[in-house]
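Margin note: ligand = adenosine-5'-triphosphate.
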Amino acid sequence: MIDVRDLTKHYAAAAGLRSLLPGRGREVTRAVEGVSFAIGAGEVLGLVGESGSGKSTTGRLLVGLETPTSGSMRIDGTDSAAARARDKKAFHRQVQMIFQDPYGALNPQHTVEDLVGRPLLYQGVRDRAAIAKSVRAVLAEVGLTPAESYLGKHPHQLSGGQRQRVCIARAIILEPRFLVADEPVSMLDVSIKWDIVRLLKRLARQRGIAMLYITHDLATVGAVCDRLAIMYRGRIVETGPVEQVMAAPADPYTRTLIAAIPSADPDAVRVRPPVLVQGLG
Ligand SMILES: Nc1ncnc2c1ncn2[C@@H]1O[C@H](COP(=O)(O)OP(=O)(O)OP(=O)(O)O)[C@@H](O)[C@H]1O
Ligand SMILES: [Mg+2]
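Resulting structure:
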C-alpha cells in the first residue's frame, strides 16, 4: 500500500570555516540516500538506527514536511507529491505523524476536545455534534475513558502517557491510511511505554493503518513491529521480519546495534559493542 522508492534528501552542509577550504564549497549532508521500502495495510515497519542516521528526515519526507531531493512515495499507487500538490487537505486525511514530545506537540491553551477535534474543523466539518461524537469515540479507542472526563482538560493536567494518547487520537481521527510515529515512546516512563506501544500496534491492525515506527531503541521493536529496516548513514542496510533480524542479523552494523541493547539479565554474557555505536544512549 505504501511504496517508497529511492527516497533521497541532501542538505547543504552548514557554512562553517571548513567550507572555505579549497574544494569544500559544495559539501552536502546525505541525510537520506536511496531509501526504498513498502508497508502493507495493518503492517508496522520499524525504522531503526543510531542518532543522525536519517530516520526522522525519512519520516518528515513521507508526511510532506520536507521535499525530497529525489525519489517518491506512492499510496495505493498514487504518487503522494502529486496528490499533495493537488489537494493538501485530502493528503492529510491519508497521512499523519506522531512525534516524540507529546507536550511540545499540543497547544497548552486548548482543551483535549479542541485538540482532538481540530483536524475535523480543518477539513471543513462544521457539524459540532458530529465532531463531539467523533472526539468521544476516538478518545475511548486510545484508552482515555470515560472520554467525558478528559474533554475539558488541558495538556498540563495530563500525564505524559495521557498526552501521547491525545496525540494519537488526533492523528487517527481522520482515519489515515499511513501513520509515521517518530520515537513515540522515548520520552515516556518505562511503565507506560509498553501500553502505548501495544496501543499503536492494535490501532494499525484494527484500522488497517500502514505504520512506520521510528526508533533508536531496539528494546520495543519486538512488541510493535512486523518487519524492521535498519538505517545507517542515510541508507537502509538490512530489512526483514523482526524476529529474523533480531535473532540472525545479516549485516555487521545490525549486529552491533543488537549487541548494544541492555540485557534484562545482568549475568548474561554480552558482546561488547564496538566504537561504532558508542553514544547511542
Ligand atoms: N534541516 C536540516 N538541515 C541540515 N541538515 C539536517 C537537517 N535535518 C537533518 N539534518 C542532518 O541529517 C542527518 C540525519 O538527521 P535525522 O534527524 O534524520 O537523524 P535521526 O536518525 O532521526 O537521528 P535521531 O535518532 O538523533 O533523531 C543528520 O546528519 C542531521 O544533522
Ligand atoms: Mg530523529
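The radius of gyration is 20 Å.
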